[in-house]
Every structure is written in structure tokens, then in C-alpha cells.
Amino acid sequence: MTARILRRAAIFALSLLAASIVVFVFTAVLPGDPAQVALGVNATPELLAQTRQEFGIDRPLVTQYLDWMGSVLTGDFGKSYVTRDVIGPQLADRLGVTLWLVGAGMLVAVLIAVPMGVLAAVRHRKASGTVVSAASQLGIAVPAFLAGILLVQVFAVRLQWLPSGGWTPPVQDPVEFLRGLILPALSLGVVQGAVLTRYVRSSVLDVLGEDYLRTARSKGLMPGQALVRHGLRNAAVPVVTVLGLQLTTLLVGAVVVERVFVLPGLGSMLLDAVAARDLLTVQGIVLVLVAGALLVNFLVDVLYTVLDPKLRGAK
């Protein structure tokens, strides 16, 4: 098992290196001159040349990449081409907001998917199971931003139970922080919970037909007891893989949801940087998002190895 985890760690490191090269090259070859964007159309050639030298974009691409990656590894993402602010501290602050949103959204998704998926599987030939399956199919078709708009319309505008947007840091006011997080987390989690419900249902259905569950029931265990004691762990193995993909989807979905609810996360920062053509900031944000997605996949591989007995014994 240790050797397998070490191999996955090496793959993660190589994938992150390759991703950093792709991100750098794509932003470097985009049309437009960062110095021209920063100074405006009336800048003199001399000032443009001076600014390009200041930004370091007058050097070969290989040198630029090596300097950028060397700085990123120390936590220095450089200074914004537009605002001249240091990017690193902004990324750290915005990342905290996004992680709260994604974590809460995933919690909502799991709390919905596990009981509903198990119910749909156990009662798949009955009306209640059919209703859950139909509801999950409907939920899959709803985009996260549309779910957010509907939630705002109902709970913020009409009922006025929750705020329609904005962000309160948890250390400042925990109650307002939770109230402001509920609707964004629901808009992400309900949609992903519907997707995950389908996988939980399928996985539990596969487990219900296994011989070891029939043996457990023949020894006197009730069907629910047999499933909880012997089935859910095995059913969780394929679901964990899907859960990793769902986390990655939540990271991408957070970009739009943050805009809907006016949250100061990485998604809002990315859209603002793209609008301002602040390529160095875009570069840093995309690298952080890609690194997060790769890290999630690596952790899923590790968890998959721990849960699956066959993989635990593999070299």
C-alpha cells in the first residue's frame, strides 16, 4: 500500500509540474501586451519598454517560467500588472472563502446523497424509491447558478429569512457568517447531491445482490443491519472516486456561484482579473485551482487504497 501511495504522490507532483507549464504557456501566448494594458494606449515606447523590463516580460519564456515557478514555490505569486498589489496575500484570503463554500457545498451534497441514494436503492421497486430517483434526475438538470437565483428569490426576497449575498468572516460574526453561507452552499450542494445520489443508489444496488449480505441476513441480521454492518463500506469504494470528481466540479461551480452571491472568493477574483486582462493574477489563480483539483484526485486515490482491501495488500 505504501508503494502505491508513493507512486500516486509522484504522479501528482509530475502532473502539477505539467499543469504549471500549460498554464504559463497559455497565458504567455494570449494576445495583448501587459505593459500596454497597465499604462494605457497613450504610453510612450520608452515607458512601455521600461515597464516590460519591470514586469520581466522582455526575457525569454523559459527564464520567465523558471523565475515564476521558483517564486510560486516560496509563496510569492508576484505583483498584479494592473493594480501593482502583491497577489499572494489576496490569493490566500480569497482561497479561504472558496474553501468554506466548497466544503459546505460538499457537506450538503453528502448529507443529501447518502440517505437518499440508500433509500432509492433499498426501495427501488417501490413508489418512494422511484420518487427519489426522479427527483435526482430533475436535480441533475438544474445548473448551480440557476439554483442560486431561485433560492435567493424564495428565501431572501420573498421570505426574507436569509441574506441574498455578501460575506461576513467567521471570526467577525459566526452567526452572520453561517446565515450568509447557507444559500450559496445549498445552490452548490443540492445540484451535486442529486448527481451523487445516482451513484450511491447504483453502488448500493450492486452491494445488495452480493452473497455476503445474503449470508449476513441468513444469520439473523435484519436487512438494514446487514447493509450498515457489511455493505456500506464496500458500496463506498466506487462512490469515493465520484466524490473526488464532485469536489473538482464544486471548485469550478464556485466561480459562478460566488458571482451570484457576491462572495469575495477565487472565482470572483478570477473573473475580475480576466476582465482587467491582469494575466499574472489569472495565471496564479488558475494554477491554484488546478493544484486543488489535482490534490483532490491524489487524496481520493489514497482513500480508495485505504478502503479497498485488495489495494491495501497490493505493492
UniProtKB/TrEMBL annotation:
A GO biological-process term: transmembrane transport
Domain of life: Bacteria
Transmembrane stretches, start-end: 9-30, 99-122, 134-157, 177-196, 235-262, 282-307
GO cellular component: plasma membrane
Membrane-related topology note: Multi-pass membrane protein
Keyword Ribonucleoprotein applies: no
Domain ABC transmembrane type-1: start-end pairs: 95-300
Stored InterPro entries: BPD_transp_1_N, MetI-like, MetI-like_sf
Keywords (A to Z) from UniProt: Cell membrane, Membrane, Transmembrane, Transmembrane helix, Transport
A Pfam family: BPD_transp_1_N
Localization, UniProt: Cell membrane
UniProt keyword annotation of Membrane present: yes
PROSITE patterns: ABC_TM1 (PS50928)
Name used for this protein in its record: ABC transporter permease
Organism listed in the record: Amycolatopsis albispora
